[in-house]
Amino acid sequence: MNSTIALFSSARQNGNTDKLLQQINTQWPMEVIDLESLTISTYNYENKYQTDDFYALIDKILQCENIVFVSPVYWSAVTPLMKNFIDRLCELLDEPNLKHKAKQLKAKQAFVITTSASLEVSSTFANFFKELFRYFGMKFSGLLHIYCREGYDGENNDAQINEFLAKISGERNSFSKGSRKNV
Ligand SMILES: Cc1cc2nc3c(=O)[nH]c(=O)nc-3n(C[C@H](O)[C@H](O)[C@H](O)COP(=O)(O)O)c2cc1C
């Protein structure tokens, strides 16, 4: 198992976060899932849902070694669609027939890729992922934040991206071909 899945969400296509992900994807091949292309019901305590794409997405994630969460910082948080997906992960912890899937997340390497208008990534944003990965026992293997107050400037970000990729090269295994598709 040597593959990477990126869960992408942004309020715009081809925006700063999308451009960053595309640039990274040329060097770190990964399958990109745009959460906007999926239907994922909001979490409820009864865990009663209309048929949606959540279980297929989880199964796809569990086939991968590296999970990359890709979201801009919006009000120190992830996008609503990313949060919706993450909330839904509670179902894996709640439901006896799904708990084995929550356990399988423990073997995963988790990464975060983000952009914002601040020089440093919001500590609230970073801590949210720290807590999430701790809760599921995933290894927080790297976070890349790119400053984008003036928009996304690919060339100027090369050095920071290369430094990040070099730093995590021992953590990630990425022999799958990069692509963008739905589950
Ligand atoms: C709704 C909204 C909230 C934002 N909140 C923050 C914030 O809390 N901190 C920050 O540094 N930048 C914030 N920004 C700026 C974005 O993080 C930044 O422009 C980012 O690169 C946008 O990525 P995108 O093009 O993928 O949407 C916000 C932007 C929007 C649209």
Element layout with pairings:
Elements: E1 4-8, H1 16-25, E2 31-34, H2 54-62, E3 66-70, H3 80-88, H4 90-94, H5 99-104, E4 109-116, H6 123-136, E5 139-147, H7 154-168, E6 179-180
Parallel strand pairs: 1-2, 1-3, 2-6, 3-4, 4-5
The site of flavin mononucleotide has 18 residues, from helix 1 and strand 4.
Could you please describe the fold and organization of this structure?
This protein has seven helices and six strands; from the N terminus they run E-H-E-H-E-H-H-H-E-H-E-H-E. It is α/β, with parallel strands linked by helices. Helices cover about 35% and strands about 20% of the residues. It has one domain (about 5-180): 3-Layer(aba) Sandwich (Rossmann fold), CATH 3.40.50.360. Helix 1 links the parallel strand 1 and strand 2. Strands 5-4-3-1-2-6 form a six-stranded parallel beta sheet, with helices on both faces. The protein is globular. It has helices at about 15-25, 55-60, 80-90, 90-95, 100-105, 125-135, 155-170; strands at about 5-10, 30-35, 65-70, 110-115, 140-145, 180. It binds flavin mononucleotide. Flavin mononucleotide binds near residues 18 and 148.
